[in-house]
Amino acid sequence: MHVYLPIAEVSVNAFLLLGLGGMVGVLSGMFGVGGGFLMTPLLFFIGIPPAVAVATEANQIVASSFSGVLAHLKRRTVDLKMGTVLLIGGLIGAALGVQLFNTLKAMGQVDLLVKLSYVVFLGIIGALMFVESLNAIRKTRGGRAVPKRRKHGLVHKLPMKMKFRTSGLYISVIPPVLVGVFVGILAAIMGVGGGFIMVPAMIYLLGMPTKVVVGTSLFQIIFVTGFTTLLHATTNYTVDIVLAVLLLVGGVIGAQFGTMIGAKLKAEQLRILLAIMVLAVCGKLALDLLLQPTELYSLGAAGGH
Amino acid sequence: MRLLALLFCLVALPVHAEEVVADLSQNHISITTDFHGSEILIFGAVKRETPIETDAPLQVLVTVEGPSEPLTVRRKDRRFGIWVNTDAARVDSAPSFYAIATSAPWKEVITEGEDLRYHISIPRAIRSLGALVTDREAFTEALIRIRKAEDLYQTNIGAVEFDEQTLFSTSVQLPANLHEGDYRARFFLTRDGKVLDVHETYIDVRKVGLERFLFNLSREQPLVYGIMSLAIAIAAGWLASAAFRLFRT
Q1: Per the CB < 8 Å rule, is A230 touching B227?
Q2: Does the residue A296 lie in any domain?
Q3: Residue A121 is part of which domain span?
Q4: I want to staple A63 with a disulfide (CB 3.0 to 4.6 A). Which of A197, A244, A266, B233 is the partner?
């Protein structure tokens, strides 16, 4: 059954979209990640215009993170104060990101920007995760406990300190705001929530306790991606609601199965699988940039040159 | 008797000796949610007051043309080891859809001069005056190649069936990735490559129902559309998970 997407102006098989949503949903349920970083490149591969893919994915992330945030709020595992600081940075970043996106779109370089961002970030995160989970597997086999260190770095020396009671921190607001800005830019350019950057940054850079990290990042993500959706909808007209709903319904159901599968696997195994997947997507996109494309020419809307 | 015939000829000469009349199987195409392309049947006849006088056969040429828009064609080149868009050429106006069907090989149907005058062939239907690059041809060719691959540009030589120099019929396949607008259908009647008569009609291609509502809202009230998209997506996500939970218990 084909559906004509009103904004993307292409006709796509509805079951393909439900299936894609479901597949990415299974993976996101298994690994506890948003899945935006997988979905957006997959949408490119099936022929959705990149600008529509990025904007629509932002819309979908809001919806798929919504129930997660509610659950975390109920369990009181959201640091609202830290979340708000990250959010302020995120909103600034999203506005900058959409601006950058539109400028490069007029220059015809938006594809390059999106793909390069994916290659760089997926490459770094995938490689780090791969090495770290390999070490973790080796250590658990050796039976030694991982030594825990508490960092006293830059975050404690900078001015404008603030107390974050839920996280038990007394640190400067500058690093969290910068983290927020950075994630906001990525959300606007790559059509991702940015959890894959924010979660490690919160643990290693800000030193937040692990139990509030996921809830707080989800809290920031729904508002930043919501804001990004509105910015894309009002400046680019690229949010396709029909596409978003189809992906979402598949995604939500897939995520439930994914959680069940994930519960049966070990954490280190899960992480190494996720790392391999991230590196595979990164490799595919890198090849697209490195190998000579079969069609050197492409069509774009008028304006700029 | 001979005098009468001559007189008749003189009267008939200033008006078209042979006229083309044609119609389409549909004048409205609705893009609905399940739209996946459409076929238009085109049929017509040659109206003539006098019997055919010459041996040279009549030919029919049909074009169907979507609304034109300006475009930018970009070319990739290798920079720092990766493939990057480098050169660009602006095309002032290119039809979003263009199909040609003829009753005979191109050279027998129309001359270069007539093609230039009526903008019939695909390269002639594209206008690119202010291109920024030297090899403009390559960019126009690429535009045609890309659109042909998507079935948006079609050249169907010999696809018009022409019976007894009078009745003709053909069909044009409209692909699923169609843009809305007024599509112009033109019918050319030619002999020895010269255009004898032209007939024009329009096909109205419109999004309808939900498609129309969503598209219009997204352009006219983008903020409302954005907020609505978020609300619908959140509700759909919540409903899907609630339904799944109900299904499992």
Answers
A1: yes
A2: no
A3: 2-290
A4: B233
